[in-house]
Amino acid sequence: MSYTPSPADKFTFGLWTVGNLGRDPFGEPVRRPLTPVELVHLLAEVGAYGVNFHDNDLVPIDATPAEREQIVRDFKAALRETGLVVPMATTNLFSDPAFKDGAFTSNDPAVRAYALHKTMRAIDLGVECGATTYVFWGGREGVETDAAKDPVEASKRFREALNFLCAYVRDQGYDLRFALEPKPNEPRGDIYLATVGHALAFITTLDHPEMVGLNPEVAHEQMAGLNFLHGVAQAWEMGKLFHIDLNDQAPGRYDQDFRFGAVNPKSAFFLVKFLEDVGYQGSRHFDAHAYRTESYEGVKAFARGCMRTYLILKEKARQWNADPEIQALLAEINAGDQSPIAYSPATAAALKERSFDRHALGARNLAYERLDQLTVEVLLGVR
Ligand code: GCO
Ligand code: MN
Ligand code: MN
Questions:
Q1: What is the pLDDT of residue 309?
Q2: pLDDT tens track for 273-306
Q3: What does the pLDDT read at residue 326?
Q4: Is 257 a catalytic residue?
Q5: Among 73, 217, 338, 349, which has the minimal tally of Cβ within 10 Å of its Cβ?
Q6: Measured in angstroms, how far is the CA atom of residue 97 from the centroid of ligand 1?
Q7: Domain tally for the chain?
Q8: Which ligand 1 atom is the nearest neighbour of the CA of 135?
Q9: What does pLDDT average to over the chain?
Q10: Is the pLDDT of residue 1 over 90?
Q11: Could you tell me the residue range of the domain that residue 132 belongs to?
């Protein structure tokens, strides 16, 4: 097994991930900035398929129209030269002080209008570069104190903004879907639409729910103390898994954005197995960054590591699915007629009369210990 990435794997990185300078709340940058063109070449060198960006990762917020044109021309030339594609784009609605109290949910109507203005232009830029998925991560859409903002008003404002932008995309005839990226906190004390579940429910209230899905991120659900796979599976089952942000995170810590699989390889395994088993066709986007200790050599090692770990886990999933002992246990666990009980008055009446051997049901041994041990052994490479 060479575990060499190929375009079919759809491995993507953001300009902001491999371009992360290692700044943190306590320390200054440790790496020099690379241009978007240099970052595209770095990604091509490590074998990525695509590159995603926020508007201002590519075009600085105060660029003139002529500067924008030149930057986009150079960037597109780098894409052509390397064969990289841009599957996803997004808006930076969090760095500028104008967004210190949110963008779409700000109390200030002028800030809300500016957020729409900036997002429409960023959508144009993303589509111009080929993006078909547009991510909304509401980094600043939240509060430190609930005295500051009415959460019901915030929901309404978020909805109005998304309805406006869906209408804009339809009017332009763009082939673009929106993916909401939930996160519970950081940089705000609390962020609205905190988890996959919140976002899935919210989407049903939009004017064009069919245009809007999810971009769940490993670290974000783990920060909320949740099982990431379960959120992903629910989004998938509802036809809403439009994109995914892969990284890793120790529970209860700051927003770590570690290399995929670096903290909890077992959860990463079940996630990869799920994506591969169901035939998820979207990007595998690594939203993570290298340790602050690294030079750009380390950044390449980080990016290669994300992809290599994914491919190793994909191979482990194949092995797990082909393991006769594991399959025998699964067959045993799932024995019996598994078809749903369809309601009819007669079925309901018969079911009410049926007698059950409750003690026998409770006495059945479920071989989950053995199954989990086999899983661990597959992962540890002894099977
Ligand atoms: C974070 C988020 C971001 C978003 C990005 C794209 O925790 O900072 O994950 O990296 O994914 O802004 O919307
Ligand atoms: Mn994140
Ligand atoms: Mn993310």
A1: 98
A2: 999 999 999 999 999 999 999 999 999 999 999 9
A3: 98
A4: no
A5: 338
A6: 17
A7: 2
A8: 13
A9: 98
A10: no
A11: 7-322
Atom of ligand 1 nearest to the CA of 90: 13
255 ligand 1 Cβ < 6 A: yes
Is residue 54 annotated as part of the catalytic site, yes or no?
Answer: yes
Q: Which of 322, 351, 369 is the last residue of a domain?
A: 322
- Helix axis angle, 109-128 to 151-172, nearest 10°: 40
Question: What would the pLDDT profile of 178-187 be if each residue is shown by its tens digit?
Answer: 999 999 999 9
pLDDT digits (tens, 9 = 90+) for 44-65: 999 999 999 999 999 999 999 9
The gap from C-alpha 172 to its chain's centroid, in whole angstroms, comes to 26
Residue 368 lies in a domain: yes
For ligand 1, whether the C-beta of 181 sits within 6 Å is yes
In the predicted model, what is the mean pLDDT of residues 341-363? 97
Same domain? 297 vs 362: no
In angstroms, the Cα distances linking 276 to 95, 178, 228, 270, 314 are: 35, 23, 16, 10, 7
Other CB atoms within 10 A of residue 255 CB: 14
- Clarify whether residues 264 and 331 are in a common domain: no
Q: Are 98 and 106 in contact (CB under 8 A)?
A: no
Residue range 244-263: mean pLDDT, rounded: 97
Q: What percent of the chain has pLDDT over 90?
A: 99
Q: Is 55 in the pocket of ligand 1 (CB under 6 A)?
A: no
CA of 23 to the centre of ligand 2 (A): 15
| Ligand 1 pocket residue status of 183, Cβ below 6 Å | yes
Nearest to 84, CA basis, from 52, 44, 118? 44
Residues 157 and 287 in one domain: yes
For residue range 346-355, list pLDDT tens digits in order: 999 999 999 9
Q: How far is the C-alpha of 105 from the C-alpha of 109, rounded, in Å?
A: 9
* Residue 217 CB–ligand 1 contact under 6 Å: yes
Do residues 262 and 233 make contact, with C-beta atoms less than 8 angstroms apart?
A: no
Q: Name residue 14's beta-bridge partners.
A: 52
